[in-house]
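Final report, closing paragraph on structural work. Over the funding period we assembled a curated collection of sequence-structure pairs, and we close with a single example.
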Amino acid sequence: MSAPNIYPISARRGIISGMSKAALREKWKAAGICPNCGCRPCVDGMGYCSVCRDKCYEKYKLRTTHARQEGRCAGCDAELSDGRSAYCDDCRVYSKIWWRSARREWKEQGRCSRCGGVRENRDFIACVKCRAKRAQDGKTPASKARVRRRSVRLLNNVLAHYGARCVCCGEEEHGFLTIDHIENGGSVHRRTLKASGARWYRWIQKNDYPAFLQILCFNCNCAKGRLGECPHETKRKSQEAA
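Its predicted structure, as stored:
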């Protein structure tokens, strides 16, 4: 769509006598024109046109990729502690707070709670595009890898809190460790919560690491579930009785 007649080419370039660039952009914004290019209408619920929004996203991806390669925060240029994120801890905390506030505001305004765009169906809190993207989580190779990394990261945090070793045999290899309910009933509990994998680990974190959980290796956990007691524990009890 071409720019309206009230905004000639010279105006879009900011060559207007007595009008600053900021004032010009405010004028475009009030008229529903993209304040970045002044050529196309803003996408409903967004501050830019679709073309400028896509360009901004491409620049964002390049900036974050470069930040990871250089080991510097993309937000404040501080040194990164690891290569997992393109932002330092302080910038991640700020971003998390900002996104929570923005999504709460978008939801109250009847917009998509994930991107702030137009919500076509009021029965959903997200737009069609965001729902389609969410539906692909865990299905494409890249999405599967991302979900797996998130699950492993959450599991490692939970294991670290409970000591990161099997309380029965002392196994410390993370690949062999799992979460166990001390009084049994773990499968029933997880079905009640409808939680498994990353959702289960996140529930443990949000509930301050309950005391009724412990770390067992898969061998000890399976033996406990099948026999009622791990053979290691049975052997220890017999030795103590002797």
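The first strand starts at residue 177 and ends at 181. The chain has two domains: 43-135, 143-241. We thank the funder for supporting this effort.
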